[in-house]
Amino acid sequence: MRIKLEIESNNSKTVDLEESDRGFSIGRNWGYAFATLVLSIAIALPQVSKWVESQQPIRLLQRLAKNTNKLTDSKSTTFPTTKGSPITSGFGWRIHPLTGERKFHYGIDFGASKGTPIYAFDAGLVEFAGWRGGYGKAVIINHGAGKSTLYGHASKLSVRKGEQVLPGQIIGKVGSTGMSTGPHLHFEVRLNNKPVNPRPYLQQHKLSSNYSPRMQAFLATIRWAETGTSGTQSYQKLVFNGTFDDFSTHPLIKQCASINGKRICSTAAGAYQMLDKSWRDLQPKLKLSDFSPESQDRMAIEYIRRNRAISDVESGNFTQAACKVGKIWASFPCNSYDQNPKKISELSRYYQKQLSLRAGG
Ligand SMILES: [Zn+2]
Fold first, then answer.
1. At 90, is the secondary structure helix, strand, or coil?
2. Alpha carbons 285 and 277: distance in angstroms, whole number
3. 61 in a structural domain
4. What's the CA gap between 164 and 44, in Å, rounded?
5. How confident is the model over 296-340, as pLDDT tens digits?
6. Which of 157, 185, 240, 301 has the smallest CB count inside 10 Å?
């Protein structure tokens, strides 16, 4: 059966998966056939065996052939770009950001700025490195046993076809080449040339939330306004100074400082500066098992919900949403906490920048 499938491509360039990858598949099978033939000869003629084994690709294929079928068994895999990069689009049906059409998305998109390194997920042979239609500049690495990974939309490639790579080796830089609306890494896992959901293969690595790009950007803006950074370190901040390491519970530490001549004491902690009383309220209601970054995100979203700002966030009405949550976060406007709130224009600029990192195609 032939089904029209689109991979990272627009209407005019709709590619047929069977067609577009057939040449590549044959090429690879010939490669295997050849390697198998050479190995058979090598076994039959011990004198050539030494020479054959000294050939790097053959040795690699031998090693890869011994690997089990489960990529997840491998403890040596590397997250394909900077850890914690937000998922901007998952595997499955979606509305294509460029064409507006319902299309199947064959990989996971990670939002990252241009120039961010792309890492080889696992050891393998570079099967393809170059321009590949809608994928733009792309690399395909063959990990053996029918497994391969694809990295798309790169701004720069640093490996060549036939090269052997190690897990974590830099193979290129994030970009926005091909069918893409902004810098991101499109990462695919293929089993016998068929794209499968990469999520299980990334399980040993911490994946960022599955929230919409707008919600992620909104949360990042709160983290930045409250702690000065939206990065992972924000989740460990104590209110006035220092950090905590134990995520098993809210740190419940009270710190005091002088703000605008007033002595203020607070238990605020984490990326959203949650108070001890917020923890006592939300921990049982949201059935939180800890004060981990995921739990902190859920607490923040619960407060956004309680202030009826979810739909404003999801529809991109930033100003309205920011004002509604001003009662919760003193760094936001529309409150009378007098704790040096940020200007809406400043928050909006940061939000837009965060959104652009997460809204790639
Ligand atoms: Zn993609």
1. coil
2. 13
3. yes
4. 27
5. 998 999 999 999 999 999 999 999 999 999 989 989 988 877 777
6. 240
- Please tell me whether residues 109 and 197 are part of one structural domain: yes
Q: Which of 8, 19, 226, 302 is catalytic?
A: 226
The Å distance, Cα 8 to ligand 1 centre, comes to 6
**Is this prediction's pTM over 0.70?**
no
Say whether both 248 and 144 belong to one domain.
Answer: no
Distance 77 CA to ligand 1 centre (A): 21
Q: Domain containing 174: what range?
A: 17-202
> Does the active-site annotation cover 226?
yes
Number of structural domains the chain divides into: 2
Determine, yes or no, domain membership for 251.
Answer: yes
CATH code, 96: 2.70.70.10
Cα of 70 from ligand 1 centre, angstroms: 23
Q: CA 353: distance to chain centroid? A: 17
Phi-psi region of 130 (alpha: psi -120 to 50; beta: other; left: phi over 0): left
